[in-house]
Amino acid sequence: MPESLVISNVDAHPYQSVVEIKEKLSLQMENTVNWVDTVSYIVRSKPESIIELGAKSQLKKMIMQDYRDLKIFSFDDEADLQAVKALLSDESKLASVSSEYSFISRMLGVIVSTPNKNFDTQDYEKKVIIPYNELVKKNEDFKEKAYSPHIEEIVELVKRLRDILTAKQVPIIEQIDRVNDLLLEAKLGDQKDKILEEIY
Residue 166 and residue 162: Cα distance in Å, rounded? Predict the structure, then answer.
C-alpha cells in the first residue's frame, strides 16, 4: 500500500498497491487523463488546501474554473509559495516535500503528463513504453542504493527524456520548456543553460 494517497488519472481512484501503480501508469501513457473525475474525487475528500507542484499554474487555473471556493496554491507563483510556507509554518517541512522526488521520478512525471500525438502502436511501444519502463527500473535501482546521478548522467537522462518526448511528437519548443522546468525543479539552474545547449 502506498504511504500517501495518490489518485490515478486512469480511473480517478487511489492506488492500492505498488503493482497497481505500475499497471495504471502504463495505462495512463496510452489513454486520456480522467481529469474531471480525478478533481471531483479530490473535492469530495474535502481537502483543506490543494498545492500544485507543476509549472505554469495550469492545474490551479483549471480547478478554479469550477471550484472557486477551494484554497489552491501553486509552487510556480511566488505569492502562493510564501502562503504555503506560512501554512506549513515550518520551512524544514517544506524542504522535505520538495526534495522527496528524485530526478528520474520528476522525469517520469514529465513523460506521463505530456500528451501523446504518436498513434503508431509499434513505434510508441519501442520508443516510449520500453524506454519509460527502463527509466522506472533505473529509478528503483537508484532509490535502493540511495544514489544521486552526477551531472554527466543527468545529461544522458535528459537526452533519453528528449528522445521519448520526440517519439510522442511533442514540439521542440514545448520540450525545451518542460526540460527547463525539470532542471529548475531539480535545483540545477546553474547548469540549466549548458545542459539545454548540449541537448537541443
Answer: 6
